[in-house]
Write a structure and sequence with these properties.
The protein has helices at 19-27, 52-55, 102-124, 126-150, 155-177, 183-187, 193-211, 216-225, 228-235, 239-249, 254-273, 279-282, 285-298, 303-306, 311-317, 319-351; strands at 3-7, 13-18, 36-39, 46-47, 66-68, 75-77, 82-83, 88-89. It is of the alpha+beta class. The chain has a 4-stranded antiparallel sheet.
Amino acid sequence: MEKWKVKKSDGKVYGPADTQTMGQWIREKRVLPTDLISPADKEEWTEASKIPDFQEFFGITQEKKEIICPQCGKVWPQGAVLCTACGTNLKTGKKIRGYISSEETVAETLSTKAIGEGLRILRESPLSFAGVTFLYFLILFVLGAISKRLQIGNLLTLIISPVLTLGFFNYCLLRVKGEKAGIPALFYPFTFFFPAWGLVVLLRLMVFIGGLFFVIPGIILSLVFIFSYFILLENKGGVIQALKESIKLSEGLRWKILATWVLGSLVNILGVLALGIGLLFTIPIAPLGIAHLYLQAKEGKLEEARKVTTKKEILIALLPIVICGIIFVVIFLFGVLPILSKFLKELHTVRNLPSSPPLR
């Protein structure tokens, strides 16, 4: 325990004494606020009232230099009134009803920002995107036609399609990075054919098997591993390593990824309405948005967004289920129900027909 000595106004020195003893002397008025105190082994004299160890004995409360939010634990400078991280009044300790925190704002706009970034990149060279998309589907069509001609089922499509799909993601990734990309980007994954083919086929199988269990598991698996496409493209590493890294990188972002993909898919409806030709321009938007999220997550720019999942994101992500539900109800009410009602009426009429007289 540290020892102290006291120098009174008459120059006399008392001590050494430990902190508790000094506190007792202060309470007994034997040591005054203006008396000088120094560590016992030094000659560093300071007024007693200015030494933090003794201020509580003089009834002096130290002014806090910072405030800690009681709700989220964020530290704010003295004088702050509102915790913008969670919307808590720092004076009352209560959350402000209806307040949208800064973290919620980041998370809430993340999906729309990703799609907005995809639209911005698309507008820079729409014809290039349309050309690559057209070539992608043309190759798949030709492969299907050749397979049919050779009567080998979908063998060629099964072999080439997965790698070509990864090539389409590669084209989108390069454009998001701001790098030059053209038709060669579509065929880049063929330089590491087997890992590329293995990853895409493995993911499709996992999603398909998961989809057999009421669809939801398949969706979850696709969200967990979606970044593995970009990881493999950048690192050319093993398939398992890409899957493991995707699990870590997508953590806390899966609702946002789903919401981004849903928004991109909704844009595709506009492409369908434009006589189908518009799909050449709209199909790349969702992959561009996902690639943007991947790069942001990889660079550590989404750490705040990982902590918050808003109701709006969940609603956007669940929008397809809502739409399908509405379509089902409409079809049932205006399609199935009238037919069923008509069938029941006819069945009732047949039952009420008079029976034939008995033969004699």
